[in-house]
Design brief:
single chain, 4-stranded antiparallel beta sheet, mainly beta
């Protein structure tokens, strides 16, 4: 009933910017949270940012504060991740997730996209 599709990844030099999109279909997501997670090779999946769909409350990992901005568009059922001042350590597959009451906990999300690759060169 729910499908999440990420887009916007790519190759960028350090200091550059990318905007990721996550389009949701099948249902709307009121009250619950949507999040972005990332996974680098050999690493565990880690929290990046989340947003409460209904009211727009946001949460960020310390490593991306002041560089990344999460937002959503109700009309398009889409959540965005604007990534500025990218660093090589941001290189990872970025995943969109939906429907969690605990925004920072990957294990609590019920739906996941297939991911989009972000590569930052130095």
């Amino acid at each position: 009933q729910v499908q999440l599709v990420e887009s916007g990844g790519g190759l960028v030099q350090a200091g550059g910017s990318l905007r990721l999109s996550c389009a949701a279909s099948g249902r709307t997501f009121t009250y619950y949270n949507m999040g972005w997670f990332r996974q680098a090779p050999g690493a565990e999946r880690e929290f990046v940012a989340a947003i409460r769909w209904s009211v727009g409350s946001v949460w960020y990992a310390d490593s991306v504060k002041d560089r990344f901005t999460i937002s959503r568009d109700h009309a398009k059922n889409t959540v965005y991740l604007q990534m500025n001042n990218l660093k090589p350590e941001d290189t990872a597959v970025y995943y969109c997730a939906a429907d969690s009451r605990l925004p920072r906990s990957a294990e609590k999300y019920n739906y996941w996209g297939q991911g989009t690759q972000v590569t930052v060169s130095s």
